[in-house]
Amino acid sequence: MNRTDPVATPAGRRSAKSLPQRDADATRSRILEAAKKHFSQNSYEGVGVREIAADAAVDPALISRYFGSKEGLFREIAGQAFGAGKFLADGIEELPARVIRILTGEVDLGDWRGGYDPLRFLLSSIGSPTAGPILAKYLERDFLAPLSSSLGGRNRRERAAILAGQIIGFAVMRIVLSISGSDPAEKAASRRVLAEALATCIAPDREPNGKSRSRKPAG
Amino acid sequence: MNRTDPVATPAGRRSAKSLPQRDADATRSRILEAAKKHFSQNSYEGVGVREIAADAAVDPALISRYFGSKEGLFREIAGQAFGAGKFLADGIEELPARVIRILTGEVDLGDWRGGYDPLRFLLSSIGSPTAGPILAKYLERDFLAPLSSSLGGRNRRERAAILAGQIIGFAVMRIVLSISGSDPAEKAASRRVLAEALATCIAPDREPNGKSRSRKPAG
DNA sequence: CGTACAAGTCAACGATCGTTGACATATGGG
DNA sequence: CCCATATGTCAACGATCGTTGACTTGTACG
Fold this sequence. Notes:
homodimer, mainly alpha, DNA-binding
C-alpha cells in the first residue's frame, strides 16, 4: 500500500558516483529477490524472515521496516508474480506453445534468477490460510481475468479457469515428481497430449444440446 | 514403520463392555482424524501439534508418543490419503465421470468427515520441503502408478502424469478461487470442457510423425 | 564543517514451536 | 486383592518465530 511510508528516498538521484554503502532501493530489491527465492522453495509459514535477511545480507529488522511485515513482503511479491500477462504476450493462439515450452523446461520465463519460479511460488504457499487468499487475489487479477477476456465464445470464465488449472496442474506434476525427464520421445509425447488438452479449452465452447457432434480426439 | 513400537494393545478385545476412559486405538484414531482436518486447511509448517491435540481432546505429548513425531503423523496420513485407488474402482472409462463429480462438488469421496479432503491435503503441503517429498512418494505409489498401468497404449506414464495434473490443477482452481459456483449452465459448461480435456489424455496416444496433420486449435 | 535525517545495527521482547522425561492413574490378569 | 503396565498428564526444555524500540553510522545539504 504505502511504499514510501517509513522510508523515503532522501535526495535526488546519485546516478553513478562513488557507490554508497547505504542505498534503500538496492536493499529493498535485495530483500525482494531473496524472498522470491525462498518463497519458491518453502511454504509461507516455513520461510523465516531471518533466512531471507541472511540471504539478502541484511538485518532481519529491515524486513518489517520496509514492508511492514512478513505478510506485506509476501503480498508485494505476489503482486508482481503473475503480472504483465506474459502468457498472453503473443496472443491467445500462441499460448499453448508458450505454456508447453515453459512446462517442459525450456524456460523463457522472464525471471529465473536465483531459483525463483512464479509457478513454484504459487504452489508453495497455496495451502497457507494467510498466503492462499493473497495468491488467489493476484492470480485472479493478473492471470485469470486477462485470460478470460482473451478467450472468445461463451462460458469463457469456466474455460479460463480450467485452462489455468491445467497449467497449474501440470506444473504440480512436473515439480512434485520428476516428469518430462530424459527420453526425448517421451517429452514429445507429453507435448502432444498437453497441446491437445489445452486446445480443448481454448476452442470456443459448443452447444450443450445441439446436434451433439462427437469430439473424440481420434475419430 | 513400527506401529506398535512404544504402544501395544495390552489385552484382548474388550468389544462392548463399560467403555473405558483409556483406549489407545480410539485415541490414535482421534489424533489421526484431527490431523487430517488440520493438514487439509493449513500447510505442514503452519499446523501445530498443539492445535491437533486440542482438536482431538488429547495431550500434545501423545502425538510424539504415538507417531514418533509430527512428520511421522503426517506420513501416516499421506500413506492413506490417495489409497485404495478409489478413482479407478469402476475402471478407467468411468474415471472422467467420477473425477468430474468430485471436482464439481457432488462429492462421493469416501471420507469428508470433519473437513478432510485428500485433494486439499495434497495441495496444502505440496510446497513444504519436509512434506512435499512424502506426498510425492505416496501420490506416485497410490495414484500415478495404478493409473499409469490402467491406461493402455504408449507413453502411458506421460499421459497418466498429465491426467493427474489436470485433476490436481482443477482442484487448485476450485479451491483457490470460487469456481463452479452458482449458475447451473456454467457448471454444465465446466463439466463438458473438463470431460473433453480428460478424454484427450485417456485416449491412446497417436503417432507423432505421421502425416503431420496441422493441430492449430481453431483452424 | 556540522548538523539533520535517512539507513542500518543490535538486543531483546513475548509467543509459539516440537519434543522429552518424570510422574499420575486407570485397567486387567495373577 | 494387588501389582505390572498400558495409558495419559504435566511441566519444562531449548529453539525459533515475527516484531519492536533504542541506538549507531553514513550521507547530503546548509
